[in-house]
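Record type: monomer structure entry
Structure origin: computed from sequence
Chain ID: A
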Amino acid sequence: MNCIIVDDEPLAREAMVLLIEDAGALRLVGSFNSAVSASRFMEEHPVDLIFLDIQMPGITGIEFARTISKKTLVVFTTAYTEYALDSYEVDAIDYLVKPIEQARFLKAVDKAVNYHALLLQEEKEAIETVDAAEYFFVKAERRYFKVNFADILFIEGLKDYVILQLDGQRIITRMSLKAISDLLPKSTFLRVNKSYIVNTRHIASFDNNDIFIGSHEIAIGNSYRDSFFEDFVLRKR
């Protein structure tokens, strides 16, 4: 599981790093002193679990937790036991009181790993359901268009809208790129930068920086390059 630490105290972050290093199920991918910096990181990097301090300057841990996707699990870390009730209101996996003992920490990790496995199973079942379908409907120009997954070349996000690029046709609909991504078969569609999702079956060629679909050239984002080569290139071998 990919995890990050969010705590404004340097010593607390260092102590948490040591605990995480001893937990084989976790991979630390970031450590941050504020919710703002953590949020920016999470926009481009997948995070499964956050060890989140509650009492921080600016945005508190409780406030930050309310903005986090349900797919990202939260374990609160704090020196104050009186925040326990608040942690349950935002569906935190666990609540650790500083100084954190290793045995108690590993118990929280085990709980998070088990719950994460359940989420992955639910996602797998949802993906299989979507993959069984061949089309979906999108609203544009005051009517609904039937769009076959196979006909989509790529999808471009533009603020509150997405552009579905078909062969010879563009459909613009009011929807976020994240929302439409949840509807797409994961076995076929792959996000390659902050603004584009491509249909891998239409990729004609690529290099280290760009993907070519017909006459269209789409950049591979730096933070998406590894997943592109792992999920598309290596999987096809």
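Annotation 1: The chain has two domains: 2-129, 135-234.
Annotation 2: Residues 102-132 form the longest helix (31 residues).
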